[in-house]
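pls ignore typos typing on phone
iron/sulfur cluster + seq
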Amino acid sequence: MLDTSLELSSTKHDNPNIKKIYGQFKSEISEELEKFHVPSKQNSMRTKQLWNWTFLGGVTEFSEINNMPKELLNQLSKNYTLSRNSIAKEQKSNDGTMKWLIDLESENNSTNNQIETVFIPEEKRGTLCISSQIGCTLNCTFCHTGTQKLVRNLTAAEIVSQLLIAKDRLNDWHKNNPNNVRKITNVVMMGMGEPLYNFEAVKKALQIMTDFDGLALSKRRITLSTSGIVPYIERVGNEIGVSLAVSLHAAKDEIRDILVPINKKYPLRELINACENYPRIKNSSKITFEYVMLKDINDSLEDAKDLIKILSNIPSKINLIPFNPWPGSNYMCSDMKKIREFAKVLLDAGFSSPIRKPRGQDILAACGQLKSETIRLKIKK
Ligand code: SF4
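k done
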């Protein structure tokens, strides 16, 4: 590990009546400005200015805005804030992966109100992995977050805030990058939680992130990952329009029922049918299927052939993920030789099947690990 973990403190804004500007649509800000008696001719200009300062300038205080009337900024600051959620811990791996443990607002300052956000830099892109819930209800047996009870859904502002925090820490604001070379190029909703069990907030957050006047992230560069909440899959395509990833991990119900227990409610037949009808497939966008490689559980060549069979009608990319063991887990990672053989069977059948390079292992980058470690240390003290 290059960097030992760094404890950070930042201002907390715990007043629940103070709203975050970056959790609002432009239309909501515009309505608010009307209430502050901004003349209607100026309303659209002022809304855009505020939106630009927030999402291109990366300001955290209204006092940093220098082209809007002071009185209006004063009024805004009584009802809104630009401040982020606080970072409880920041870690940097020797492979450049960064991980933040973020404190969310809570009534009792519980350590249970923390989420994780991870930045993974690669040669040609930088991916930010964002959480949608504190904990999770789904108990996937290979997933560390699955051992943490659901505390609550995140708000749209808390989801957007993770991107702003990462941009702050990576100095990734437009004003500092005149050539617009962004460090964060891709966003994946693959952190803690099942995004489709927090559909409305996730939808709003992603719509804010893709708004052309603000962060303007391309929908093609955002991937929403689900464990297979079938009734929402079509809505993701129609209402959000981002790329879809499915945590598949098995091609037979009897194995998937154990690895991803929500499979008992939405079995493979229904899930695959929803994927075959995913609206973006018509634009020849591939669906990514995540497949964690677990020794002697789902890694036989027979399993690979079953996978080919069930995905035969879906333009697919299959990400093979070597299992990253966590304390107390019951699984082991498949041998590398076996993973390569598995990948070759898929490749020979025409599927793109990259083997994911483990990242950030020295900083507990597997989802949910940093939070558990922090709670464990606090209990020990
Ligand atoms: S894999 Fe995703 S849905 Fe399953 S327990 Fe982990 S966070 Fe929840």
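The chain has two domains: 19-81, 86-380. Confidence is low (pLDDT under 50) at residues 1-12, 377-381. more later
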